[in-house]
Amino acid sequence: MDIDKEIQTLSEKIKILRQEIKKGNKSVLKELVEARKRFKKLAREKQKRLSAWERVQLARHPKRPHTVDYIKSIFTDFVELHGDRRFGDDKAIIAGFAFFEGIPVAVIGHEKGKDTKDKIERNFGMPHPEGYRKAVRIMRLAEKFKRPVITFIDTPGAYPGIGAEERGQSQAIAESIMVMGSLKTPIVAAVIGEGGSGGALALGVADKVLMLENSIYSVISPEGCAAILFKSQEKAPDAAESLKITAKDLKELGIIDCIVPEPLGGAHLQPEKMFRLMKRAIRSTLKMLIDKDPERLVEERQSKFYSMGKFLEK
To answer: What are φ and ψ of residue 261, in 5° steps?
Structure first.
């Protein structure tokens, strides 16, 4: 859309003008102020009328910050652990230990990759069963050493290939869900891009589920839903509306607990600001959970998920 192109152009222009000011060129200050005003006006206008399908596109934006970016910006002294101790290491899931503002935590997340080579190595963020088993291994270690678990969800779904099925994909996902449901340590999950099907839920059974404003979280992709229900992927925008996959819809339905606002124009335009917003959200959420009795945490977590999906017949 033309407005999207103008927003992107203004964003790049603002970055260039800021660099000029840093170099001492004060003559561009007025131009920067005008560019920022125009950017804010257009971005707010766009944000007000975003459709569910447009949010899908934003959630999949190639420049959107990934798990590795949040780890580098929010945590310190991250040590990545590898392998599931059964088959191998799955690079579609990053897992390890770090510090969050001095608090030792476990960090686990899907990773889609940056360039083509990285995307292929990470299987475009679609984990194999060994990825979920690695995640479970780190979760159990976190429970043993009384460390909160923070997960980042960003996947189209678990990999559905023959090899993955042969190695127990569904069992690995089920085990991860079961372990998270009974883990005696605080768990915070954040949907930062796509949250697709069981591949996402395997890292989403948390005490508090955060979701970025322009992320999506669904049992199936809009394209998959359209192919099944309408026999045509061209109906994906209609399916996106029907699926209720946006943060606003899911908050109203009680599936998520908190919507994390994104910078104007989307997280990909101002990643540093996005990191600050996410850090603030994790900080306030951990503060609510960290001193709770472990048994009470598990009880409340299970009660929360058991209550989902209820409906009344008229």
So the answer is: -65, 150
Q: Is the pLDDT of residue 103 over 70?
A: yes
Give dist(CA 265, CA 50) in Å, integer: 11
Q: How far apart are CA 27 and CA 214, in angstroms?
A: 36
Please, which residues bridge with residue 150 across strands? 107, 188
Question: For the chain, give me the number of helices (H) and strands (E)?
Answer: 14, 8
- Model pTM score: 0.87
The candidate with the shortest Cα–Cα distance to 189, out of 174, 173, 204, is 204
Residue partners of 302: CB distance under 8 A and separation at least 6: 181, 182
Write the pLDDT tens digit of every residue in 121-135.
999 999 999 999 999
Facing residues of 218 across strands? 196
**Per-residue DSSP letters for 37-83?**
HHHHHHHHHHHHT--HHHHHHHHT-TTS--HHHHHHHH-EEEEE---
Burial 138-174 (b: 16+ CB within 10 A, else e): bbeebbeeebbbbbbbbbbbbbeeeebeebbbeebbe
Of 219, 214, 222, nearest to 241 (Cα)? 222
The pLDDT > 90 percentage for the chain reads 69
The CA distance from 273 to 2, in Å, is 25
Q: Report d(CA 274, CA 39) in Å as an integer.
A: 17
Phi-psi map region of 158: left, alpha, beta (phi>0 left; psi -120 to 50 alpha): beta
The pair phi, psi for residue 78, each rounded to 5°, is: -70, 130
Interatomic CA distance for residues 155 and 203, integer angstroms? 10
